[in-house]
């Protein structure tokens, strides 16, 4: 069977490996972490950095094509591999999603809706930013995720302080929008430019981290459709091949693109249990030049993230370590538990998730929230 390459060994890569195996492929994973969740189930785990050219050569020799699950793989790594084998998505599309300045400029240049922002390279840029941006949120341009590298600021003095805390790294300063709610669209685009979207998902965050995803979103059909149209336009303009996720804010009834992820997304985990083809199967299909699968969602679903604090007594940072009691979840009809085999629990670390599926959306949501409360997840 053909062998596929995966850059990054997190849970998104792990689900890709599982999908590829079911479709008859082997997968080699490159990730420096010896305990990476995807590396543990891969046919081979190359334990090396993304700039280790000997390891990249080995990967290129063994694999028919390569993809990524980690958006911060250096664009140079993707460019280097692309000399030997197909790399999907390509370096230029990934580069836009890796840098909030490039991402915001891309949105602006392509007429896609986004909130007011300023690019911050220096103290002078903060001084020049309009007062109307505040209250605002300063975000480092690179390497932020799960709300890391972000500070909420109410005036220029606070923005300056936060900029110094981020070691004067390039940032964007975004106006804090009043959120009605948040949605995302996961889609796949193949090498011929054909696109298939999964139904628009509604996302609830707690402390900057995705907590609960409700699919389909409880928004109007019109709003769900326009989110899909914007996401399709983004995929086309990026020349994207693979699985792409677009996060949106809904503010005063209007859609604003928040950010893109050039890979499967946490808010698409439910596609494993609630759709005919999952977002990971789509990633395999797009990578291998196969026709895209059926994105029909056959069940209403709610996904709940299981974060590291669950592993501590009372959820306290210095609480006693304990394994959560999964039997509570196993007893819920329609609930599917997915654990990522991570060895160390940390606060805010994504350790697993569960999805509840069923025919009645309100019933599924009630069940998922009851299960979430029963295992002691805090909702603040
Ligand atoms: P991830 O990549 O894990 O989604 P991230 O670190 O890239 O997270 P963002 O998506 O930028 O973070 O922000 C995380 C959350 O913080 C958003 O989903 C939203 O709830 C809130 N947030 C971020 N920016 C704004 C904003 N400009 N206005 C209002 N809320 C915001
Ligand atoms: Mg992000
Ligand atoms: Mg985000």
From TrEMBL:
Residues binding ATP, per UniProt: 100, 139, 144-150, 174-177, 182, 205, 258-259
Give the pathway listed in the UniProt entry for this protein. Purine metabolism; IMP biosynthesis via de novo pathway; 5-amino-1-(5-phospho-D-ribosyl)imidazole-4-carboxylate from 5-amino-1-(5-phospho-D-ribosyl)imidazole (N5-CAIR route): step 1/2
- Name any one Pfam family assigned in the record: RS_preATP-grasp-like
**Per the record's keyword annotation, is Zinc included, yes or no?**
no
EC number(s) on file: 6.3.4.18
Keywords tagged on the record: ATP-binding, Ligase, Nucleotide-binding, Purine biosynthesis
Record-linked InterPro entries: ATP-grasp, ATP-grasp_carboxylate-amine, ATP_grasp_subdomain_1, PreATP-grasp_dom_sf, PurK, PurK_C, PurT/PurK_preATP-grasp, Rudment_hybrid_motif
Report the enzyme's class at the first EC level: ligase
Per its record, the protein catalyses:
5-amino-1-(5-phospho-beta-D-ribosyl)imidazole + hydrogencarbonate + ATP = 5-carboxyamino-1-(5-phospho-D-ribosyl)imidazole + ADP + phosphate + 2 H(+)
Q: Where is the ATP-grasp domain?
A: 104-288
Function comment: Catalyzes the ATP-dependent conversion of 5-aminoimidazole ribonucleotide (AIR) and HCO(3)(-) to N5-carboxyaminoimidazole ribonucleotide (N5-CAIR). Catalyzes the ATP-dependent conversion of 5-aminoimidazole ribonucleotide (AIR) and HCO(3)- to N5-carboxyaminoimidazole ribonucleotide (N5-CAIR).
Quaternary structure and interacting proteins, as annotated:
Homodimer.
Question: What name does the UniProt record give this protein?
Answer: N5-carboxyaminoimidazole ribonucleotide synthase
Q: What organism does the UniProt record list as the source?
A: Zoogloea oryzae
The gene designation is purK
């Amino acid at each position: 069977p053909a062998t596929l390459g995966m850059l990054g060994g997190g849970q998104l890569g792990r689900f890709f490996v599982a999908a590829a195996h079911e479709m008859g492929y082997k997968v080699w994973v490159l990730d420096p972490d010896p305990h990476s969740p995807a590396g543990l189930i891969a046919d081979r785990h190359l334990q090396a950095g993304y700039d280790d050219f000997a390891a990249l050569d080995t990967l290129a020799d063994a694999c028919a094509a390569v993809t990524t699950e980690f958006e911060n793989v250096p664009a140079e790594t993707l460019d280097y591999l692309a000399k030997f084998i197909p790399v999907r998505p390509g370096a230029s599309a990934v580069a836009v999603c890796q840098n909030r300045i490039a991402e915001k400029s891309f949105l602006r240049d392509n007429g896609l809706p986004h909130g007011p922002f300023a690019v911050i390279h220096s103290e002078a840029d903060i001084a020049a930013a309009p007062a109307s941006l505040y209250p605002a949120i300063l975000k480092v341009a690179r390497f932020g995720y799960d709300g890391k590298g972000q500070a909420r600021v109410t005036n220029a003095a606070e923005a300056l302080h936060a900029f110094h805390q981020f070691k004067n790294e390039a940032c964007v300063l975004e106006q804090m929008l009043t959120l009605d709610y948040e949605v995302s669209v996961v889609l796949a685009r193949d090498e011929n430019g054909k696109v298939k979207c999964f139904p628009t998902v509604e996302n609830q965050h707690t402390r900057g981290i995705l907590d609960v995803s409700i699919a389909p979103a409880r928004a109007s059909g019109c709003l769900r459709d326009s989110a899909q149209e914007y996401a399709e336009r983004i995929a086309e303009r990026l020349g994207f091949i693979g699985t792409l996720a677009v996060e949106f804010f809904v503010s005063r009834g209007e859609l604003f693109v928040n950010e893109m992820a050039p890979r499967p997304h946490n808010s698409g985990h439910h596609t494993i249990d609630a759709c005919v083809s999952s977002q990971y199967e789509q990633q395999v299909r797009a990578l291998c030049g196969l026709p895209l699968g059926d994105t029909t969602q056959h069940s209403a679903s709610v996904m709940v993230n299981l974060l590291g604090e669950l592993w501590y007594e009372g959820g306290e940072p210095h609480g006693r370590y304990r394994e959560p009691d999964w039997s509570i979840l196993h007893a819920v009809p329609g609930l599917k538990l997915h654990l990522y085999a991570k060895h160390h629990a940390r606060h805010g670390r994504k350790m697993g998730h569960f999805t509840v599926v069923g025919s009645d959306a309100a019933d599924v949501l009630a069940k998922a929230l009851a299960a979430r409360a029963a295992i002691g997840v805090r909702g603040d």
